Amino acid sequence: GPETSSWCPGPARKFEHQRREWSGEGLRRQVVIGEVRNLTRRADYSTTSALGYCFPKQDIKLLGRIMQETHVSSATKQVFLACHGAVESWRFLICVALACTCVGYAFLGVLWFCFSKVVHGLIVGCHLLLLACCGASSYACVHQELNFFTNYFEPHSARTCMWSCTGLAWAVWLLFLAFCCCNRSAIRT
Question: Within 13 Å, how many C-alpha atoms sit on residue 156's CB side?
């Protein structure tokens, strides 16, 4: 837009002015104390409107002072700082976007060429994890010193909780095994 200018006050200078006048009661003294400022015409800052505020376009130091010394909500400050960071480091953001695109296509390539091996590996990993949980909980049932429920409950309740967890772990593994057996034709493809 067109350049505009405004009258801006300069630094303050203190003054004292005394006036004496005669009246019917005698000599009277009037003292006026104040400050005076010289006004100078300055060009206005070019601004842009964002988030309900006007921000200077080209003076980053002034913008930083405005953000620190005025009441702007923390959400607005975060959005502004994020946008300012994105504008300042756009080259880095483009590099990150390109790297993410390459990693995404590499992942799609792995899925295209090795998807069945990945699925079989995940199934074997789940079986091993579930069997390890079953084994650890069964071992803790036999050896009460390894039962971590004894830290929270009395011995009889701790033993009951551990046997319940062991039964639940074996039930989950058996359900997963049944699911894999029933759907092995889908897993092979």
Answer: 0
| pLDDT at residue 189, rounded to an integer | 59
Is the pTM higher than 0.85?
no
Return phi, psi of residue 53, to 5°.
Answer: -130, 160
- For residue 55, the cross-strand partners are 48
Distance set, CA 146 to CA 92, 129, 139, 140, 158 (Å): 52, 19, 8, 5, 11
What is the DSSP pairing of strand 53-56 with strand 47-50?
antiparallel
CA 30 to chain centre: 63
Tokens describing residue 154: 């009395």
Quick one: pLDDT band at residue 126, thresholds 50, 70, 90?
very high
Task: Write out pLDDT tens, residues 162-173.
Answer: 999 999 999 999
Name the region of 30 (left: φ>0; alpha: ψ -120 to 50; beta: rest). Answer: beta
The predicted pLDDT at position 6 comes to: 77
Q: Cα 184 vs. chain centroid, distance in angstroms?
A: 43
**Mean of the pLDDT values across residues 30-34?**
87
Cα dihedral sign for 125, 130, 133, 134?
A: negative
